[in-house]
Amino acid sequence: MSLTGRWQTVLDELRAHGRYRCLAPAAGIDFSSNDYLGYAARPLPESPALSQSGTASRLLRGHHALWEEVEAKLAAWHGAEAALVMNSGYVANEGVLSTIIEPGDWVASDEANHASIIDGLRLAKVERFIFRHNDLNHLEAGLRAAHERRSSQRQVFIVVESLYGMEGDTAPLAEIAALAQRFDAGVIIDEAHATGCFGAMGAGLIDELGLRSRVLAGVHTGGKALAVPGAYVVGSRLLKDLLVNRCRHLIFTTALPSQIAAWWLEAIERVQSDAAARMRLHGNARIFRNTLAEAGVSAGGEHYIVPVVLGADATAVEASQRLQAMGYDIRAIRPPTVPPGTARVRVSIHADHASDVLQAVAKAVAKRDS
After folding, report:
1. Within a domain: residue 15?
2. Structurally, how many domains does the chain consist of?
3. First and final C-alpha spacing in the chain
4. b vs e for 134-163, b when ≥16 Cβ sit within 10 Å of the residue's Cβ?
5. Packing angle between helix 355-366 and helix 313-325, nearest 10 degrees?
6. What is the pLDDT of residues 171-203, one digit of tens each?
7. pTM beyond 0.90, yes or no
8. Do 281 and 230 lie in a common domain?
9. 284 and 269 housed in the same domain
């Protein structure tokens, strides 16, 4: 078979299983993006006369004093020693995991973790224990088994998300931190979907629960609630120094343009003081979920990410097409993003959604079987 023939076979198989995807522009009211606080539509601040595009990695000429200011503000926001900005959440997760975890180490990873975590662990070439989603008993059993055969050089880690992007539920972080302490494990938490949306100043679930000192590294994204490009890692000064010196995802990547640092400074200041948007966000999630429940629809999760599992791929696609025709931008989520047989529509609630629109959308979702 020729190379192009092989590609065509892959695409044909995807079509046959209802999993072929194509790019589609935004249309209708946004219920699919991760713009949880509604910041994406705001005008960006005027940037000083800085480079308009990336020119080199941060270890060459891509660094700028503004990034030091951003990282100092991020570290102070989270009450941590240091923060390091990277180009995206995917890059940050993959880079952190493949840098600090070494072959011979042991890692417990939640089965619902994001693809960037999965790929980061593959790069690290470690022994992986995939525990059932949020199942503390399964996690403890794995940790106990690893502890019994642990060598002096073998490090143990637990990797989870704080708020899962496809399930809409939160990890039992306090209990995980307690298990980590019992079994001398380092905890790494992806806060992508929680950053900006939890805590008095929006720092996320780690800080809301007072767990920062018990977490080895937190990975936070800008491209969701903060609505700015990039991501950052929060941890110790030693961790930052290690990443700067050893993380290939930082060393060999062209830095973000320095003008984006000015956007970050504005976003940090805004989100820290915007308790009103966080209150609206969680209030809107309750309105939507309550309306769904009144209509007899069971949705997964507990917050502003609302998955309605429909089962078959085709059913989810048909539901999303129907909702889009009504003017609501809601997308179907299919394998491999979620396990086979759990295709769904994922409704993303935002702080700037009107209550009457939320109720109308919930009723439209509920009519899927009529």
Report:
1. no
2. 2
3. 46
4. beeebbbebbeebeeeeeeeebbbbbbbbb
5. 140
6. 999 999 999 999 999 999 999 999 999 999 999
7. yes
8. no
9. no
Has residue 85 been placed in a domain? Answer: yes
Domain that holds residue 135: 65-273
CB contact set of 142 (below 8 Å; sequence gap of 6+):
108, 129, 131
pLDDT value for 148: 85
Neighbours of 42 (CB within 10 A): 12
pLDDT of residue 151: 73
Q: CA nearest 84: which of 105, 104, 59?
A: 59
What is the DSSP code (8-state) at residue 253?
S
DSSP-assigned states of every residue in 283-339: HHHHHHHHHHHHTT---SSSSSEEEEEEESHHHHHHHHHHHHHTTEE-EEE-TTSS-
Residue with tokens 């920062």: 212
CATH number, domain of 316, equals: 3.90.1150.10
Residue 152 CA to residue 150 CA, distance in Å, equals: 7
pLDDT of residue 53: 55
**pLDDT at position 96, please?**
98
Q: What confidence score (pLDDT) does residue 313 get?
A: 93
DSSP string across 85-144: EES-HHHHHHHHHHHH--TT-EEEEETT--HHHHHHHHHHT-EEEEEPTT-HHHHHHHHH
Reduced to 3 states (helix: H, G, I; strand: E, B; else coil), residue 281 is helix
| Domain endpoint, select from 273, 299, 331 | 273
Low-confidence ranges of the chain (pLDDT < 50): 369-370
